[in-house]
Design goal:
Mean pLDDT: 91
Structural class: mainly beta
Helix content: 10-25%
Strand content: 25-35%
Number of domains: 2
Number of strands: 10
CATH topology of the largest domain: SH3 type barrels
CATH architecture of the largest domain: Roll
Largest sheet: 5 strands, antiparallel
């Protein structure tokens, strides 16, 4: 077990309060006596990461090896990484195929042929820059954007039943 080894969480019970699931992957940042500091990225929100003390018995070493350029990037940004210590992952309200309504009118949406109240379906619930991918199947067939999906700010959507 060494710095920058890729690991998988084998026991998530002590870490559930941080939003970690079993088999979640992380990167060892520091080795302590019975613990290691592991950097985890939220698979549902790519804007979130957390650095946690993990018992060595709660992780397994992955076969994959972190590329040198990523190791160098981590080393260069270690102070920023340490700021994410004990961060709790946010839960995403939206799941794959949820029915949603656009609840905000903005020029960026108008340019795409979308308007407040349009109904769509989540086609990728991974949050990137506070947006998710939504398909609006009732978009006008004459629209140049007909058949496309759109990155919509999660704050501009309401989940509907």
């Amino acid at each position: 077990m060494k710095k920058y080894d890729l690991v998988s969480l084998k026991n998530n019970l002590p870490y559930k309060k941080y939003g970690l699931d079993i088999n979640m992957h992380g990167i060892i940042i520091e080795i302590l006596s019975a613990h290691v500091k592991v950097l985890f990225f939220n698979p549902n929100n790519l804007d979130e990461a957390t650095l946690l003390d993990i018992d060595k018995n709660d992780i397994g070493i992955d076969k994959e090896i972190l590329p040198e350029n990523i190791k160098n990037e981590l080393e260069k940004n270690i102070k920023k990484i340490e700021l994410k210590e004990n961060f709790v992952f946010s839960a995403t309200e939206f799941k794959l195929y949820d029915k949603v309504k656009l609840s905000f009118q903005d020029k960026k949406y108008t340019k795409l042929g979308l308007k407040n109240g349009d109904i769509g379906f989540v086609v990728d619930n991974t949050i990137i820059d506070n947006t998710i991918e939504v398909d609006f199947p009732d978009l006008d067939e004459n629209s140049p954007f007909y058949g496309e999906t759109f990155s919509i700010n999660i704050n501009d959507l309401k989940k509907i039943d």
